[in-house]
Amino acid sequence: MEKGFTYILTNKNATVLYVGATKNLKNRVDCHRNGTGADFTKKI
Fold first, then answer.
1. What is this structure's pTM?
2. What are the pLDDT tens digits along the chain (44 aa)?
3. Contact 7, 28 (CB under 8 A)
4. pLDDT of residue 41
5. How far apart are CA 15 and CA 1, in angstroms?
6. 35 backbone φψ class: left, alpha, beta (φ>0; ψ -120 to 50)
7. How far apart are the first and last CA of the chain?
8. Calculated CA dihedral for residues 6, 2, 40, 11, nearest 10 degrees
9. How far apart are CA 35 and CA 16, in angstroms?
10. How far apart are CA 21 and CA 39, in angstroms?
């Protein structure tokens, strides 16, 4: 069984939580920060 990560991100004001799962945590967090992750967490 491959191991993975469950992660929780929040917005600037900590009013919304986003929960995700990935095998490569660093890459996934970088994707969110660069706007290539989920549209929900993209910086506008």
1. 0.71
2. 789 999 998 888 889 888 999 999 999 988 888 878 767 666 66
3. yes
4. 65
5. 35
6. left
7. 37
8. 30
9. 17
10. 15
